[in-house]
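Quick note —
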Amino acid sequence: MSGFQIFAVAALTALVVSGLWGALIVRIRREGKSSQEKAAMLREQLVSTRADMEHHRDAVFDAMAEGVMLCELSGKVVFMNRAIRQLFRIPENVPDGITLLEALRLHEVHEVFERTVKNGRTMGVELNPSALESKHLMLNAVVVHDASGKPEGVLLIFHDFTRLKELESARRDFVANVSHELRTPLSMIKGFVETVIDHPSMDQETLTSFLGKVQKHSDRLALLIEDLLTISKLESGQATVNLRELRLCLEISRVVGDLQRSAEKRNIEVSYSVPKDMFVKADADLLEQILLNLIDNAVKYGKSGGKVEVRAMRNGADQVCVSISDDGPGIPSEATDRIFERFFRVDKARSRSQGGTGLGLSIVKHIAQTLGGRVWVESELGKGSTFFFTLKSSAAKDNSSHPPTDALSSAA
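Predicted structure written out below.
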């Protein structure tokens, strides 16, 4: 091969190699650019996925009833959910870098935090911070680790069990009150029976008197048990409710007639003023029980020789408001919020002398709620009391927009 041929082959080889190398460089650059674009896309997807995860995390934690807070080991707050903001009244615009102690201002929580950092877990700590209006809280705390097992923060979970405490207190009070109410008539019955047994030859008049008292206290026990069963059914929603259209003036007049004898004994005038065409949607037996309780109380505790007035009026488009007023001694303002509690008595001595179980107004409250209404009282010492309750109006027949002269009135 001549020198020229060798040179030509070498030149051609150089060109081929140069072309291949150029193509390779272009391909590498193209693939490098593609890899950078893929890496950028992966970074964007990672950021988007992380944002979605954080959003879902926040949604899950915000839906929890428990307060949740995550802090770094230094005490800096990383995350808190909606429940803990509401519980401790923490504003939304909390500055970055705020510490646990600055956020909650409770040294006992900070002490639990430090104990958890040291021990890894702290469970079942009860808190009753005075700044939270007698709230009862249960605090659990645990150290959170990263993927390598290294501690990186503390998770605190606050459970508000104030309602459970209130229910437990109500249960204790209820048991104590029921025990007391049962013990009194039982002791009386036992005493009279023992006396009769110890004196079998007592005269007929004394024996009849004792047996009458035994019957009286037995009736009181039966009434108490009946009221307890009624409240239990109403609170559990097991009470049978037969809603139908009732002419209100007839229901009220029937109850006023039943209580006329009691009113005459105390020389009390009972009157009512109800539109003749006012209809309500209610259960007849439950409505009668409300009226009997409230009107009977007004007769018992009203001023001797005074008046009891029953009125009914429209309360909006779909409700009727019934009021029962007396001119008795009235109710102290501090007692009006508690008067519908079970066994609560404004004047315990007078209430027991008048009879009753101490459950009447509580039954009234639950019946009113069962019928879709509510009950409340307005009173002033020395000027009497007025009890109100609402019922659903029967729109189909209620034409009670008549003038007052169309009201049915009567006096006992």
